[in-house]
Amino acid sequence: MLTEKELSQQETEAMRVKVLSEALPYIQQFAGRTIVVKYGGAAMKDSTLKDQVMRDLVFLACVGVRPVLVHGGGPEINSWLDKLGIEPQFKNGLRVTDAPTMDVVEMVLVGRVNKEIVALINQAGGSAVGLCGKDGNLITARPQGDEGIGFVGEVSSVNTKILEALVKSGYIPVVSSVAADEAGQSYNINADTIAGELAAALGAEKLILMTDTAGILQDPKDPSTLLPQLDIQQARELMKNGVVSGGMIPKVTCCVRSLAQGVKAAHIIDGRINHSLLLEILTDTGIGSMIVASGYQR
Ligand SMILES: Nc1ncnc2c1ncn2[C@@H]1O[C@H](COP(=O)(O)OP(=O)(O)O)[C@@H](O)[C@H]1O
Ligand SMILES: CC(=O)N[C@@H](CCC(=O)OP(=O)(O)O)C(=O)O
């Protein structure tokens, strides 16, 4: 007869085996496919979570998935603006970007945040290459055009050649959300938007946005109201009736835009959870919200 302790040990082991074996069909399904991940929020501030995200990306690359990472860095830009005595200003969730602010955005995102992430991925055993929209003509920007918002850009076009060459050779591209227009003027583009447009242009299997909330909630104050799966129509309805508001609007909008352009599934997940990326991609239930074109099965 087994003791209570032995039984509980057996259950734990059975659970671990179940999780590992559950991953196999997903690894087989996604090997050779591109997954675009927007990395931001809590997972970018906490050093343990940071290391875990990098390990998860390296794990995915090792099993043949092709991850492309797009990073944010809004809080780090704020802290450098603060050091320089420039007051951060936002309009409809976008940073008002005058010429001095554009310089700071570019220095912080391209010069600091991007290179820190590249180094962390390399430390975790991967091989990362840092880029911004300018590299290899990846993204051409155009002004977003709102009055008084300055050098805030939109994606005018994407040339995926450089990314395709990198992922094919086993590199993990790490992309900052700064791009230039045809005249070489730099623009500051929201990182969620860049991730959505890259996912669409690459024909990615998935777009995954990591943030500081469980996913899309029916009641934004109650995590137990998480919506695990919804289609494009339902997502649009939630924006229309105000259930999705504030910072969640650009996220859901870019998910819907990428799905309309052929991405199979767009996920909004909680970056505060350990190994949230692997749990979302490689398990039956996932952990966040998945928006799909109708008919798609997890
Ligand atoms: N229906 C909703 N479900 C979840 N979060 C929502 C919802 N509606 C609005 N939100 C808000 O959106 C926020 C996420 O957007 P944001 O703070 O811009 O994220 P990030 O900084 O990761 O880009 C949540 O913290 C929450 O306050
Ligand atoms: C135009 C605009 O607002 N750009 C963002 C770019 C960085 C970003 O998107 O970072 P998070 O994902 O951390 O918010 C900004 O300047 O903060």
TrEMBL record:
Site residues (Transition state stabilizer), renumbered to this chain: 38, 251
Domain annotation Aspartate/glutamate/uridylate kinase: ranges: 34-270
Signal sequence residues: none
E.C. numbers: 2.7.2.8
Localisation per UniProt entry: Cytoplasm
Source superkingdom: Bacteria
Catalytic activity, reaction form: N-acetyl-L-glutamate + ATP = N-acetyl-L-glutamyl 5-phosphate + ADP
CDD domains: AAK_NAGK-C
Biological or metabolic pathway of the protein: Amino-acid biosynthesis; L-arginine biosynthesis; N(2)-acetyl-L-ornithine from L-glutamate: step 2/4
Group of enzyme by EC: transferase
GO molecular function: acetylglutamate kinase activity
Keywords noted in UniProt: Amino-acid biosynthesis, Arginine biosynthesis, ATP-binding, Cytoplasm, Kinase, Nucleotide-binding, Transferase
Family matches, as InterPro entries: AceGlu_kinase-like_sf, AcgluKinase_fam, ArgB, Asp/Glu/Uridylate_kinase, Glu/AcGlu_kinase, NAGK-C
Function: Catalyzes the ATP-dependent phosphorylation of N-acetyl-L-glutamate.
Name of the protein this chain belongs to: Acetylglutamate kinase
Organism name: Laspinema palackyanum D2a
Lineage of origin: Bacteria, Bacillati, Cyanobacteriota, Cyanophyceae, Oscillatoriophycideae
Record gene name: argB
